[in-house]
Amino acid sequence: QVQLVESGGGLVQAGGSLRLSCAASGLTFSSYFMGWFRQAPGKEREFVATISWSGASTYYLDSVKGRFTIWRDNAESKVYLQMNSLKPEDTAVYYCAGRRGSRWSLNEYEYDYWGQGTQVTVSS
């Protein structure tokens, strides 16, 4: 059984930081592109960041570039999202996702597995 479990969400003031973690099990982790998506109340889920198999390549939503960093530890089957300089508009449920693909995808429908999400709330 494939499971992705996020942790690390919480309440933080604007300008603060959080680190999200995603622990994967039941899949060959190193063969999956991993990504983070988020969904704010009343909005569609949107892409945040993705990372390639080896972790050598990353891609970010423009609005989080320079503030968020995605990395992975294949030995531990974990992917992380470090979020700095948080803004109220970053408030959302953040989801970890995995895609067994051979190319980049920012489309949520091309991801195969999803976690249940972790709430990030940024107060102003």
Strand content bin: over 45%
Chain-averaged pLDDT = 96
Using the CA coordinates, give the radius of gyration: 13 Å
Spans of 5+ residues with little confidence (pLDDT < 50)? none
Specify the number of helices.
0
Shape: globular
**In whole angstroms, how far apart are the ends?**
40 Å
Number of strands: 11
| Helical amount | under 10%
Can you summarize the main beta sheet? 7 strands, mixed
List keywords for this structure.
mainly beta; 11 strands; 4-stranded antiparallel sheet; 124 residues; 7-stranded mixed sheet
Describe the secondary structure blueprint for this structure.
Blueprint: E1 3-7, E2 10-13, E3 18-25, E4 33-39, E5 46-51, E6 58-60, E7 68-73, E8 78-83, E9 92-99, E10 113-114, E11 118-123
Parallel strand pairs: 2-11
Antiparallel strand pairs: 1-3, 3-8, 4-5, 4-9, 5-6, 7-8, 9-10, 9-11
Provide structural commentary.
The strands form two sheets. Strands 2, 4, 5, 6, 9, 10 and 11 form a seven-stranded mixed sheet that branches. The protein has a four-stranded antiparallel sheet with strand order 1-3-8-7, with no helix packed on it. The protein is 0% helix and 49% strand. It is globular. A hairpin with a 4-residue loop joins strand 7 and strand 8. The model has no long low-confidence stretch (mean pLDDT 96). It has 124 residues and is an all-beta fold. It has strands at 3-7, 10-13, 18-25, 33-39, 46-51, 58-60, 68-73, 78-83, 92-99, 113-114, 118-123. The chain is built from no helices and eleven strands.
